[in-house]
Design goal:
6-stranded mixed β-sheet, 100 residues, mainly beta
Length: 100
C-alpha cells in the first residue's frame, strides 16, 4: 500500500493508501491524473508529487477549482512536478481551492 492521490473528473482531490491509483475512484468517475502524497506537519504542508503510472500527472491546467476535503483546510497544498529537490507549485497560486 502506498500514499497516493488522484484528481477525479469532478475536480476532487482524493487521497488514500492503495496499491493502484484506480482503487481511489468511485464507480462512474474518471481520473485526471495523480501521484503521491506526504504530510509535513512541521511546516503544515500537504506535499503532492510525481505522477500516476496509469493516469499520468495531475491535470491542473483546465481546472478552475480543486475540491479538497475539509480536514486539510489548515495545510498549505504544494505540488512537486519533478524530484522533491526541485521547485514546488503552491496550488492556491494556480487554482481556487474549495473545501468540502
Amino acid at each position: 500500500m502506498y500514499p497516493k492521490f488522484i484528481i477525479t473528473s469532478s475536480g476532487q482531490l482524493r487521497l488514500g493508501l492503495v496499491n493502484l491509483h484506480k482503487n481511489l475512484l468511485e464507480p462512474g468517475e474518471e481520473c485526471h491524473g495523480g501521484g503521491y502524497y506526504k504530510f509535513d506537519y512541521e511546516h503544515a504542508t500537504l506535499e503532492l508529487s510525481g505522477e500516476s503510472s496509469d493516469y499520468g500527472p495531475p491535470q491542473w491546467s483546465g481546472m478552475g477549482t480543486l475540491l479538497v476535503p475539509m480536514e486539510y483546510r489548515d495545510l498549505e497544498i504544494v505540488y512537486f512536478p519533478g524530484s522533491r529537490s526541485g521547485y514546488a507549485v503552491k496550488l492556491d497560486d494556480i487554482l481556487t481551492i474549495e473545501y468540502i
